[in-house]
TrEMBL record:
Role this protein plays: Ligand for members of the frizzled family of seven transmembrane receptors.
Residue stretches in coiled coil: none
Pfam short name (any one): wnt
Keywords: Developmental protein, Disulfide bond, Extracellular matrix, Glycoprotein, Lipoprotein, Secreted, Wnt signaling pathway
Designated name of the protein: Protein Wnt
Highest taxon listed in the record's lineage: Eukaryota
Any Gene Ontology CC annotation: extracellular space
Length: 244
């Protein structure tokens, strides 16, 4: 099947996402699987609550009859963060497995010097996964019928979700030596489990900052609604102050 025909079978994408699909058709299965992973994690994290992501298309985040997500709520913030993280996670994992032709293991870590161990093995190329997530997932905000305030909120939360993945990369090592000794140690960088990613984003959901979008220096800027609360960072989830 030609790329254009394959992409037409994926509903809900805007023009930018369709262009990405046609150029990167071999990555679309990883993107779809990442969206499904995020959807499953959302249901797990909220399985004891009335709302549990049950009305969402996992690939496009289209909402079916769910008023909670049509507004700038913390539930909407969670969906965007977990979806962006899910796509980055699955693309990164499939790169490490050699399932995507355009990427592979992260070789840049091998250039780091360390006297205690040697970098070796296949380090997860999380920067590539994040770049794909940013290009595809964030493009979905440009073609959606929504306010500029909501777009700013969504893009912020997309990035916050990806930051959780990147900030929790870890070093894994293997010892080499006679009789179980560790005379030589090789290490590589690995992603956390997606359950851990989901749990961290859920914690951020519970502490989401309510913000307003104002004009500052001729550009829209997010500010906290209540000055008694802490300032949000790029890694925090935000929900919208409603002007209506």
């Amino acid at each position: 099947m030609q790329p254009q025909a394959s992409c037409r079978h994926l509903k809900g994408m805007n023009r930018k996402q369709m262009r990405f699909c046609r150029r990167n058709i071999e990555q679309m299965e990883s993107i779809r699987a990442g969206a499904q992973t995020a959807y499953g994690e959302c249901q797990f994290q909220f399985h004891k609550r009335r709302w549990n992501c049950s009305m969402i298309d996992p690939l496009t985040k289209e909402v079916f009859g769910d008023a909670i997500l049509r507004e700038g709520t913390r539930e909407a913030a969670f969906v965007h963060a977990i979806s962006a993280a899910g796509v980055a996670y699955r693309v990164t994992r499939d790169c490490s497995k050699g399932l995507i032709e355009k990427c592979g293991c992260d070789q840049s870590v091998h250039r780091r010097r360390n006297e205690q161990f040697s970098w070796s093995g296949c380090s997860d190329n999380v920067r590539y996964g994040i770049a794909v997530s940013r290009e595809f997932v964030d493009a979905g905000e440009r073609g959606r019928n929504q306010s500029n305030q909501r777009r700013i909120m969504n893009l912020h939360n997309n990035n916050a979700g990806r930051q959780v993945l990147e900030a929790n990369m870890r070093k894994e090592c293997k010892c080499h030596g006679l009789s179980g000794s560790c005379d030589m140690k090789t290490c590589w960088e690995s992603m956390p489990s997606f359950r851990e990613v989901g749990t961290i984003i859920k914690d951020k959901f519970d502490g989401a900052t309510e913000v307003a979008i104002i004009e500052a220096d001729n550009k829209p800027t997010m500010v906290r609604k209540n000055v008694q609360f802490k300032r949000h960072t790029k890694a925090d989830l935000v929900k919208l102050y409603s002007f209506l």
